[in-house]
């Protein structure tokens, strides 16, 4: 009895796979663009505070000399990414990085963003 049920389920799965291959899967939907662009204020950087935040939150993955480890190198992140993109990465995370919204204050995130944005 079990063999018969398993055979029927396997046959159904094979038919479903053939159907999907023949009639194509639906196209991926476009990701909605953010209607409110982020503008990172150009505030003076508190280097000591930014370094402290980096050491306690970022250094384990990005390295003590920004060389990268588990995360990418940040030595020239300001030349590779805009400040707005750096800000979004810190806030939302992604690609294995956790988001820091709620862990860091807005001022800390802006300060860290401006500091990293100066790495060119």
Automatic annotation (TrEMBL):
<dbReference type="InterPro" id="IPR051811">
    <property type="entry name" value="Cytochrome_c550/c551-like"/>
</dbReference>
<dbReference type="InterPro" id="IPR009056">
    <property type="entry name" value="Cyt_c-like_dom"/>
</dbReference>
<dbReference type="GO" id="GO:0009055">
    <property type="term" value="F:electron transfer activity"/>
</dbReference>
<keyword id="KW-0408">Iron</keyword>
<keyword id="KW-0249">Electron transport</keyword>
<protein>
    <submittedName>
        <fullName>Cytochrome c</fullName>
    </submittedName>
</protein>
<keyword id="KW-0349">Heme</keyword>
<dbReference type="InterPro" id="IPR036909">
    <property type="entry name" value="Cyt_c-like_dom_sf"/>
</dbReference>
<keyword id="KW-0813">Transport</keyword>
<dbReference type="GO" id="GO:0020037">
    <property type="term" value="F:heme binding"/>
</dbReference>
<feature type="domain" description="Cytochrome c">
    <location>
        <begin position="45"/>
        <end position="120"/>
    </location>
</feature>
<keyword id="KW-0479">Metal-binding</keyword>
<dbReference type="Pfam" id="PF13442">
    <property type="entry name" value="Cytochrome_CBB3"/>
</dbReference>
<dbReference type="InterPro" id="IPR008168">
    <property type="entry name" value="Cyt_C_IC"/>
</dbReference>
<dbReference type="GO" id="GO:0005506">
    <property type="term" value="F:iron ion binding"/>
</dbReference>
């Amino acid at each position: 009895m079990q063999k018969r049920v398993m055979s029927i389920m396997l046959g159904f799965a094979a038919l479903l796979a053939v159907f999907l291959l023949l009639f194509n899967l639906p196209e991926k939907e476009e990701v909605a663009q953010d209607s409110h662009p982020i503008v990172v204020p150009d505030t003076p950087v508190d280097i000591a505070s930014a370094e402290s935040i980096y050491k306690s939150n970022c250094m384990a993955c990005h390295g003590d000399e920004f060389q990268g480890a588990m995360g990418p190198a940040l030595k020239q992140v300001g030349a590779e990414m805009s400040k707005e993109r750096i800000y979004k990465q810190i806030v939302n995370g992604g690609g294995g990085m956790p988001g820091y919204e709620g862990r860091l204050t807005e001022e800390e995130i802006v300060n860290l963003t401006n500091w990293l944005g100066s790495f060119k």
